């Protein structure tokens, strides 16, 4: 039931702080340490490479997870679109471990890969919102997202839950293998900060609604740009905007703009920059200036410690590794309000189904 909400999507965006708190309860002990099955951790430790498989938003969540597994657990990790992996399998390492990300646990493209993984007796984990779903039943291990039912076609709380569960798992694996970076990452404290930060962002809806009305209501196309994990969030931000508001939106690595895409910038083309990483903030800002010089309507979503006066949306500070948990929220709201402003059916965009059970 969506109660007083006009659409499930807005309800689900608003539920994100509570989902973060639930994940702390479900997965972290009183000492703040992850409580993860040691058999799962032992199988992951025995692997020489993690392969993350997902589609759409779940693929985008995997892009964040890969960086977390590499940084916190020091294990090489690659992310693959399930429909690509199924038919163009890369050369695998000797001891692969597969992580399937799927809100529904029923995505046919991802299942196709899992069938192949099982034929080869490779160990696997499904991270899903639906207990006993197909991908959960058929994988070696399951971790649940505890996000509650996600009804809107556009995935929101499942994305942030997927990122958070991967952060918890990467922390657990990093501790299990004795990696220093994991030992100094206080996941409990960080997820508490994330929950509070998300609450502050969803409480500033009206500002984001105004930005959507000014910048995104009319243009036919828009760009999100960033570097590193900010680029990964740009891909998710663009997907949200295109699937529910029908604005042709693309996420770009900001350094790539000058290699072609900047030719598309015209007067008032919206370009949203995501800036949460110390090393790349200055570079992304200068890329944004290059688009502004060609007439772009530049908007910035910046972490507080990197913020400048003109930034449109300022994010509370958290560990930069998990900044996507916050930077995605304004992008979800921008997509929501753009769709709402156009009078579209936010929860049921044209041509799309919640769960894609065909290949
Ligand atoms: O249930 P899944 O996570 O496997 O679904 C994957 C995609 O179909 C899904 O994320 C889709 O891209 C959403 N509509 C995105 O908002």
UniProtKB/TrEMBL annotation:
One of its GO terms (molecular function) is glutamine-fructose-6-phosphate transaminase (isomerizing) activity. Residues 40-179, 212-349 form the SIS domain. Transmembrane segments: none annotated. It is found in: Cytoplasm. It comes from the Bacteria. Its EC number is 2.6.1.16. It catalyses: D-fructose 6-phosphate + L-glutamine = D-glucosamine 6-phosphate + L-glutamate. GO terms for biological process: carbohydrate metabolic process; fructose 6-phosphate metabolic process; protein N-linked glycosylation; UDP-N-acetylglucosamine metabolic process. It is an enzyme of class 2 (transferase). Homodimer. Catalyzes the first step in hexosamine metabolism, converting fructose-6P into glucosamine-6P using glutamine as a nitrogen source. This is Glutamine--fructose-6-phosphate aminotransferase [isomerizing]. The chain holds residues 248 to 606 of 606 of the full protein.
């Amino acid at each position: 039931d969506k109660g007083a909400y006009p659409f499930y999507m807005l309800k689900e965006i608003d539920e994100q702080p509570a989902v973060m708190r639930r994940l702390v309860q479900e997965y972290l002990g009183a000492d703040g340490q992850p409580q993860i099955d040691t058999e799962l951790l032992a199988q992951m430790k025995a692997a020489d490479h993690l392969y993350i498989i997902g589609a759409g938003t779940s693929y985008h969540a995997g892009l964040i997870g890969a960086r977390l597994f590499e940084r916190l657990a020091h294990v090489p990790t690659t992310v693959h679109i399930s429909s690509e992996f199924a038919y163009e399998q890369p050369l695998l390492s000797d001891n692969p471990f597969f992580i399937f990300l799927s809100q529904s646990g029923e995505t046919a493209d991802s299942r196709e890969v899992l069938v192949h993984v099982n034929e080869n007796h490779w160990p696997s984990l499904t991270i899903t919102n639906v207990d006993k779903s197909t991908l959960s039943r058929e994988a070696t291990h399951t971790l649940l997202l505890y996000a509650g039912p996600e009804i809107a076609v556009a995935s929101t709380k499942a994305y942030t839950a997927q990122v958070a569960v991967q952060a918890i798992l990467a922390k657990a694996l990093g501790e299990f293998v004795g990696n220093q970076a994991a030992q100094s990452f206080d996941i409990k404290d960080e997820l508490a900060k994330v929950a509070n930060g998300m609450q502050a962002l969803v409480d500033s809806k009206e500002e984001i609604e105004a930005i959507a009305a000014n910048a995104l209501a009319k243009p036919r196309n828009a760009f999100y740009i960033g570097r590193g994990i900010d680029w990964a969030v740009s891909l998710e931000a663009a997907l949200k905007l295109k699937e529910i508001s029908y604005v042709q939106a693309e996420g770009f690595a900001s350094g790539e703009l000058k290699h072609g895409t900047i030719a598309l910038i015209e007067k008032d083309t919206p370009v949203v920059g995501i800036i949460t990483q110390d090393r790349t903030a200055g570079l992304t800002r200068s890329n944004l200036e290059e688009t502004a010089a060609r007439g772009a309507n530049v908007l910035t979503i910046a972490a507080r410690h990197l913020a400048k006066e003109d930034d449109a949306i300022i994010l509370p500070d958290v560990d930069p590794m998990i900044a996507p948990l916050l930077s995605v929220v304004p992008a979800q709201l921008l997509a929501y309000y753009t769709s709402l402003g156009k009078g579209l059916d936010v929860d049921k965009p044209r041509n799309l189904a919640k769960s894609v059970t065909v290949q």
